[in-house]
User: Which sequence fits this backbone?
């Protein structure tokens, strides 16, 4: 098995070092004479067409995303107006500026429901 791994490692290394392999491609990209536009210009016509199509699709996605965030912003503004009175009231209660009414203090918890159910089961 070790011999197989060594043989595979040698083949992998050969592929990596081939001029058209990953290292060769990276060397071309790293060269200072290549800019993104010159790299794209060197691609086959079919690949350039795909790249241009992908760019157009990306622009369309960006426009949809911009519209989405505009609508999110409008929703946030709408609900901020609805939340504000609650936030103001909460600040007054926390600071002690106002004391809550008996009705405001009445809190029905899930634990109360559980206790009621337990009592009903005991009666059965």
Assistant:
């Amino acid at each position: 098995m070790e011999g197989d791994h060594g043989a595979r490692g040698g083949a992998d290394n050969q592929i990596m070092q081939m001029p058209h392999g990953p290292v060769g491609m990276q060397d071309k990209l790293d060269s200072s004479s290549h800019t993104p536009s010159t790299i794209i210009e060197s691609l086959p016509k079919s690949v350039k067409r795909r790249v241009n199509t992908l760019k157009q699709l990306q622009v369309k996605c960006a426009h949809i995303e911009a519209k989405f965030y505009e609508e999110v912003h409008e929703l946030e503004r709408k609900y901020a107006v609805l939340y504000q009175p609650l936030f103001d009231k909460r600040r007054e209660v926390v600071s002690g500026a106002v004391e809550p009414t008996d009705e405001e203090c009445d809190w029905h918890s899930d634990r109360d429901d559980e206790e009621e159910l337990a009592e009903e089961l005991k009666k059965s």
About this structure: The mean pLDDT is 82.
